[in-house]
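Re: folding output
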Amino acid sequence: MNVPFFDWAAYFNERADQFSRIMIGTASAGRFILQKDVDEFEAGLAAFVGVKHVIAVADGTNAILLGLRASGIKAGDEVILPSHSFIAAAQSVHHAGATVVPVELAEHDWLVSPEAIEAAITPRTRAIMPVHVNGRACQMPAIMEIARRHGLEVFEDSAQAAGAKVDDQPAGGIGRWGTYSFYPSKTLGCFGDAGALVTNDDDIAETVRAMRNHGANREKSIPRDVSIWGSNSRMDNIQAAILVYKLSYYAEAIERRRVIAARYDEAFRDLPGLRLPPPPEDGAYFDIYQNYELCSDRRDALRAYLAEQGIGTIIQWGGFGIHQLRGLGFTQTLPKTDKFFRESLLLPMNHVLTNDQVDRVIVAMRAFHG
């Protein structure tokens, strides 16, 4: 039995009839751009996350960029973020005109280290951008306290964490604003690109809502007295309709991932040379397991063995941190992050995995270490 890392077709085929009806119904009604499906998705996601405003946009990267622009981030500002993250947040900071400051991870959860954040603060620091990786929230209480003491903004890249919580607060809804991605592989994924910015700040919400549509008002027209340079970053209406439906069973999908993570944790905890992610039941944290990422002293040999057994794996983001992109001007040395990327590996993790497939992964992992 082969276990692909991600079975793209299975994500559609699990409910193909419903998805087909939604897409045909939306298209045949001519609802293509900023129609009621977008409004319904924004309202549904706001209720699910527990925030006041959701602004649906074209993708997660644009959500970050619009949030930065709406917050007044500009040339001369520094934004601290983890090197252990996808490049999207760093690109957005760069395109907003500010300076990216990548910092170390914490070894117990592999997310941004609050201590590293504080050590990187300078007079030019304007904001902290924690990135909630793999479906786990960062150490937000500590990060928010650092921001309070230093008078800094907090913007959350929650692309991989829609539904994750810490201290019963939603990842993405703790700082001034947060963003999500609905790329197909995400826990809440559509069938193309889509994203959203979420916030409890009325001014940010109003500004980003205008920015996503060329500066237009709620009537979708550009007034003569427009004062915002906008762009075209609207969520595709068919993707919004798909996401409305997916929200209806999203809690079930998260629970399935948590069950799989618990099975992995139980099966692997005694294997030598492995470091596992925090378990599903971990105090104040509620993880959604966008990914199941572990570290192995024999990562490359393990990956080769799993491939021989027909089991797909991924080394996330090509196996390097943001700070290692020397061609983009970074010069930092971050040994903890470097070590992590030499050892880290993603195992198959999604809600359409069958029990037999999960068993197959477990048997192969134990056989390698046997």
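--- second protein (sequence, then structure) ---
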Amino acid sequence: MIPPSGFAIAALTVMLWILWSDSIRSRRASQVLYAMRVALYLVVAAVLVLNRVRYPYLFSSTATVLVALTAAVGLFGAFWFGRRLVRRV
């Protein structure tokens, strides 16, 4: 089983990589892809916070900080891709 801090680090790494790769892409992706990314970011952030609330005894203070950071990046990423989803260009 992956420890909570490992799950948060893995999710944070993937989220930041997707944000970075989208920011350097010269061509826009499809609207469906942006909608899926918004959903993915929100679901992962919600799962991390839900696990932290449901199983507090598994989380150290470092894992809690990583979960909070990952949830913040998840909300920022959902906003980032949501803004690109509704942009008309």
